[in-house]
Amino acid sequence: MRIVVTVKHVPNPQSERRIENGHLVRGEEDTLNDLDENAIEAALSAKAVVPDAEIIAITMGPEGAKKALLRALQMGADRAYHLCDPALAGSDVTVTARVLARAIEKIGDVDLVICGSSSLDGMTSMLPGALAASLQLPVITDASKVSFSAEAVEATSYQVSTALTLRAEYPLVLSVNDEANRPHYPGFKEMLAAKKKPIEQWGLTQLGLSAEEVGAADSGTEVLDAQLYSQEKNQGTIVTDSANAGEALAKYLVEAGFAQEK
């Protein structure tokens, strides 16, 4: 069995970020997308069922994105591919899916593709479906529970008050959310071993693509402007308890529309 896990290098949500010329500036504190850790952990669960399975991490991004691959290797991936080319800058989710699909086809004999259900920078949640469409494979998305066998995947996702359980035989694309498992923290030996695992870099030449087929040149969307979100925080009102604080709270709830006065 050959398993490909897509990963992404994203800005750390806790770090200071800025926007220049309509684009988010990535920095030293960028990190592996949280939900991609769940995807790697899911791949390890599949490998536990099929011990001879090979886990391959793949990412598309600038030079710094290699750090996300290193983390994937530390967590248990066997090898990795970095899709890196200046022409890829500005690719929207559909172009990204086509490029990843081309790489997966080049790797060959892939039985299972696992993605995090969303990236914490774009938050479109569209990549798994777009990737499955490009690969012409069935897809199960936003799985909260997953079980693997040697022949198929069974996964449950929760849709508005309904639990939907699906089963699909390999090959397929699967996306998982943060309820699917609890990612482990790699130990010191795993971190050392990761340094010896291969990371191969592919550009457009290796993928058989032209600059006109990727990046902003072929994307169906365009970022016209972007601004940092800011909102004045309401500091609230501190009421010193003088035996009538409860009455003050009740009055506030009524005035704010959270409760009705009887």
UniProtKB/TrEMBL annotation:
UniProt entry tagged with the keyword Oxidoreductase: no
Domain Electron transfer flavoprotein alpha/beta-subunit N-terminal per the UniProt entry, residue ranges: 21-211
Cofactor(s) annotated in UniProt: FAD
Origin superkingdom: Bacteria
Swiss-Prot/TrEMBL keywords: Electron transport, Transport
One protein family per Pfam: ETF
Parts forming coiled coils: none
Keyword Cell membrane in annotation: no
Family to which the UniProt record says this protein belongs: Belongs to the ETF beta-subunit/FixA family.
Subunit annotation: Heterodimer of an alpha and a beta subunit.
Function: The electron transfer flavoprotein serves as a specific electron acceptor for other dehydrogenases. It transfers the electrons to the main respiratory chain via ETF-ubiquinone oxidoreductase (ETF dehydrogenase).
Name of this protein: Electron transfer flavoprotein subunit beta
